[in-house]
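Q: Could you fold this chain for me?
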Amino acid sequence: MLNFIGMVPFSPAVIPEINKKNLLLTKKTVAGLEKFSEELARLKPDTIFFISPRGPMRYDKFTINLEKNLKGSFGKFGVVDQEDYFYTGNYSLAKYILKKLRAQDFPIEATQEENIDYGTLVPLSFLNKKFKKKPKIITLTFSYLSWETHFELGKLLSKILADTEENIAFIVNGDLSQRLSNNSPEKFSPYGIKFDQTLIKLLKNSEIEKILKLNPDFCKEAGELGLKSIIIALGILNKTRNKFSQISYEAPFGGGYLVGRWTMR
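A: Sure. Below is the predicted structure, expressed as structure tokens.
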């Protein structure tokens, strides 16, 4: 059963070991991720399900990783004095999800990727400190298909996960606008600030229909990197009573970092 669903940024810039020179600039996000991790650890999940924008992406299909033994590190970001992260993939549940989705002709394929992508590794690095017993993990990567298809995936996952007795947490990985200032990863756009403000307000008000009807050109101009992941989560939450709570938000390098969680009632 799904007992936790939350949203975190995936930028490696929030990792203190990577961002040593600018620790104060990400102070809110680091504190938010610490609080987020503590709340999740208290629930002692058996499995954490990650939606990552940095996994193996396909144009016309979603992908789910069936690898049993997973490892990752921040070595390519210059962190050389830190031990690698090792996790076990929940092969049986991932295979079950794949089978159920394929039975409904949903566009998804299996991958077997040993390396944990950095989008998943960023929140795991915070969670890793909090767990007495490591949960298993499943990673799924979104596609270039429509928002409606991503929303439908969420609805299907909600039904599938409701049938399992496992204690499951679901984490959405994604940054918001990447065009919030002249120091942004992408060229500054005034639509960036408006996008972040609009999306956060709609999330807090549980206005799912309005999120699904956002102008795609507006979202593209804002340079967002998390909307499809969020839409999958909204599909899971469809027809449930829920409330989104913001834990932290800041844009230290011109990209919006949101940490929050949905409470299901």
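A (continued): Helices lie at 27-42, 91-103, 118-127, 147-162, 190-204, 208-212, 216-222, 227-237.
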